[in-house]
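Need the bound structure for BIS(adenosine)-5'-pentaphosphate, inputs here:
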Amino acid sequence: MKNIVIFGAPGCGKGTQSERLIDKFGFYHISTGEVLRDHIARGTELGKIADTYISKGQLIPDELMLDILSNLLDSEAVAGKSIIFDGFPRTVRQAEELERILRERDRQVDTVIGLEVADEMLVERLINRGKETGRADDNLDTIKHRLEVYHNQTQPLQEFYTNNGLYKAIDGSKTVDAIADQIALEIERI
Ligand code: AP5
Ligand code: MG
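Answer from helper R.:
Posting the output first, comments after.
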């Protein structure tokens, strides 16, 4: 069982590359953003809370996110499968807790794929996606705030995962195919 974190700023291609990995390697995909958007769409209590943060481009509180993640990891759908974590962890606390949560389940993070893309390109991608899909947080004000939150709260994880030898930087500005090939090489090396 491999456990991969796909890491990077909003719009860097985490979801796009996760789909490729699911097709090629059969990973179980945990996208915390998708889990939360699903709750919002279903109008659950959690969805109502999550919406107040997501619509402003803020992170939902760590405790809440960690509870959701632990429950997901204990679901039958995940048992015995390799996992790709997309959009989690996003704070140093989430990363530290992920280590503990995985250790308790005889798992560990095997590699962290960091998709690196300049902010101007991220904004352009997200504005385009907003027009195509209507995703609620893909408007210029919220995008700018998401990027600020990324740089302040999430980017420090690059150092965390560089220091423990897991971080693999990948140029996320290339084509989807070129990036997918490079990620596949990293995963085959584990
Ligand atoms: P989340 O859903 O994780 O969103 P995000 O990090 O902002 O990232 P995106 O999903 O927008 O982008 P992506 O990297 O998946 O890129 P994609 O492949 O779609 O989180 C949303 C919110 O939920 C957060 O703001 C927060 O409020 C909350 N949340 C989630 N997780 C949380 C956590 N752990 N803790 C606390 N709060 C949490 O690509 C983007 C676009 O670019 C697409 O249109 C795609 O077609 C295009 N594209 C992709 N790759 C390429 C390429 N190589 N070349 C050209 N175009 C490309
Ligand atoms: Mg995504």
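Comments: The chain has a mean pLDDT of 97. Residues 14-15, 31, 33, 87 surround magnesium ion (ligand 2) (CB under 6 Å).
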